[in-house]
Structures are given as C-alpha cells and as structure tokens.
Write a sequence for this structure.
C-alpha cells in the first residue's frame, strides 16, 4: 500500500517547526494533480501560516489547540468564482451558481485535499482534517474574505508531528464494500461488523468516562446531537445560498 | 512527489484484463485508511465487475464506452444508513438525515475515493472519475438498489490502461492558492493565469472543431450549458431529499 495511505493517522499535537515555503508549494502542487471535473479546477486553497490568521481561524474550529499549534492551516474551498470570472471576461455566460456545481466543485476540492494530505505525510508532516469547517462556514467566509461563489468545505492543518498515535481502527472492509449492487445489512451483520470496535479497550474507557451504556449513544448524545446537527445543517445551507450556489 | 499523484492521468481506454480480487481488495482497503469524520466511515463502495451490471450502469454515464470496457466500476456513495441502523439497534437515535451530514458523508466518501484512485494507479491500473454520477443519481439509486440514507456522489472506473495520454495541463499553482486570506483576481490576473492554456495547440484545435471564438464559450455553450446545469441541479437535489438527507 502507498506508504502515507497505510500509515495515515490524524495528528493533533505539533512541533512549532515551520514548513519550508518550497516544500509547502510542492505539497500544494500535489493537490492540483488530482482529477478535476472538466479540468476546471473549481477550488481554492487558502493557506494561513501567520500566527494572526491561525488565531483568527481557531474559534471557527471550536478552539481546538492544533489550529494555532500547527504552522499551516489550509482551508479548502469549492470555488466557482474564478472560473465564472474568466468566462465573463470572455463573453461566455456561466450558470454554475446552483447545487450541481456546489457538489461538482466539492468533489474537485476534496480530491485535491486528499492529495495534499498524502503528499504532506510523504514528507514527514502530519495532518488533521477539521470537520468543524462546515459548522462555522459563515464565520470562515468572513475571516478569510471569501467572495460569492466560494464556500469552505474542509480544512487541513499540517505540521511536524509531536505525537505518534496508533492507527485508528476501521470497520472490516466488508462493512463498506458491496458486490455488484447494494447489499442491505441484517441486524446480525451490523452486530458482527461492529463487534471488535465495541469490545475494544478504547470503547470500554469511553463508556466509563461518558457514563453511557454503549458507543452508539456516545455518538448521538455527546458528539453529534440532534440539536447541533439540525442547527449546523440549516446554517451551512444558508451559507450555500448566501454564497450563490443555490440560484435554481 | 508521490508517484501516482505526479503521474495521474484520466484513462478512457482499457484492456479487458480483469483485476484480481485480492488486488481489488487491497485497493479498496486503501480507501478505508483515509480520514473519516468521527471515524464513522459514512460511505459505501458499490463495486460492479459483472458485464451485466456495468452494462446497466453505462446509460447512467451517458454510455461512455469506458464503463463497459473497464473491468471495475466503483460507485462511491455517501451512506448514513449503515451507521443509523447500528445506532437504532443500540437504542440510540441518530439524526443524520440532514444537509450537514450529506456534506460530511460526502467528505468521507471523496477522501476514500481519492485513496482508491491512487492505490489503483500504484498497482499499474488506470482510473477515471465520472462526473456524470450526480446527473443521473436517480437512475443509479434504482440500478444499484440504494436504500434511503445512501446517495451516489462519484464513480471510479478502473482497469489496465490501453492508452497513455499526456499529463493534463493545469492552471499555474498561483491560480488556486491564496496566502492568508482570499485574494480576489484582477481581470489582468485572470488573463495571465489562463494565457498558456488559451494559447495551446489543444485549445486551437477545440476552437476549430467547435467553431467558437474562445475556450470559455466551449465550456458554457457545449460542455456545460445553463439548461443542463439547472436540470441536473434540481434533479440531484430531489434525489437528496428522496434519499432522506434533507429532513430539516
């Protein structure tokens, strides 16, 4: 397996060693080699390395310490603005301001982001993907000055790791792979697929700390509650409309 | 640069050599090593290798020959169904049936997909990403039997290449990278960023064949028309609702 793929773990503690600009450029260039729909490159990468900008972004990521600790924060944005501006300058009328192009641009963005993550790891850096990006997209738009036609989709922090956590466990491959068509799960299959994770020491410790009877309830009652899910959902959809991706 | 990243090109012609099942499993396993929000793995990979299923999927991709020619078609789906079923079996009430979780699950899906693409290429296979997936998601749902909570986001075809096209040109790195905050483009910058592509032999040939005065109008008048964009947009959003990702 490609070494950075096999050894990927999310890094949450970083040394303060900066990333050399030439290396950072090579890592970002790896992003541009990813597949992109129609070769339109409908994404932008906002690379924040100054202490001021990382501090300004930190609250957008619930003040997780790695945002200010890691020397590089890359906000990966779906971007129909640049392509649209080029079209208009050429007398062509783009109509990309709709949901299909949000999804297409997000596909471009995320394939580029994964290349960047792997290339960073190939050079000895660690990365972490910040799922908080979509929860506070309205604030990120302001902090980074994103114009209409640009919306943040995910964020990578990168830097030299100050920890080496174990590989994260995953469900068995059979949990996510379906042969020919979708194979729906029997209750017994669900039990089997989650058995190892539910029996792990890590889960036992989580149950103790959270005082809950099973792992699923930690997800639904502590980590991702219904109220949060709905609030974040409506907010991100509002940002999508405000940034001009839903004129349909 | 990681070799499969540096040498990636979309392959549209394939040998009929099958991909060995053990190799295919290793490639799919690479997908599961990608970052996934909260380690929930909110995606499913429907792997179609039979001639029948690839023929059934071909119209969903506008009958591009590679769908039946390539021995492996992987429909990469955002999936909140499996995780939700696990939660409900444990007496936990998931509320993931909303837009935020569509986006989060799509992030998981696409990072896994990019790993799969690179791992396939590392083993000498070629791949192509099919942007058509979101245009015909309603049909794909039927063909693959996707339950509520599952929606196709992208598709990879994979197989041994029968062509070696040149690397695709990209805009200069400066086109997609912004330092600290978003740097909006002056008209002159847009001209400069696109200059090399607009002056290429490939573009000259496209203008001749399409009988249009510039490349931008090929995009807006031939490849991605306003009428198509809006129709696909509404359709994919309808599928999103029908599959239970918009109960907000």
């Amino acid at each position: 397996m490609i070494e950075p793929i096999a050894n990927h773990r999310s890094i949450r503690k970083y040394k303060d060693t900066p990333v050399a600009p030439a290396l950072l450029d090579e890592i970002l260039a790896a992003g541009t080699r990813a597949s992109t729909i129609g070769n339109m490159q409908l994404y932008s990468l906002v690379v924040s390395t100054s202490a001021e900008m990382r501090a300004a972004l930190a609250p957008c990521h619930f003040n997780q310490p790695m945002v200010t600790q890691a020397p590089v924060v890359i906000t990966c944005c779906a971007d129909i603005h640049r392509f649209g501006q080029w079209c208009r300058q050429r007398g062509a009328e783009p109509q990309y301001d709709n949901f299909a192009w949000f999804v297409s641009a997000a596909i471009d963005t995320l394939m580029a982001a994964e290349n960047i993550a792997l290339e960073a790891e190939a050079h000895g850096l660690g990365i972490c993907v910040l799922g908080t990006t979509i929860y506070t997209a309205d604030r990120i738009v302001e902090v980074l000055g994103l114009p209409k036609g640009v919306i943040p989709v995910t964020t990578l922090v990168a830097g030299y790791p100050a920890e080496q956590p174990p590989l994260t466990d995953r469900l068995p491959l059979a949990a996510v792979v379906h042969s020919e068509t979708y194979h729906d799960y029997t209750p017994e299959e669900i039990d089997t697929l989650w058995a190892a994770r539910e029996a792990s020491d890590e889960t036992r410790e989580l149950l103790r700390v959270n005082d809950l009877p099973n792992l699923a309830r930690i997800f639904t009652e502590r980590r991702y509650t219904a109220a949060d899910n709905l609030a974040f959902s409506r907010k991100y959809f509002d940002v999508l409309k405000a940034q001009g991706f839903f004129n349909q």
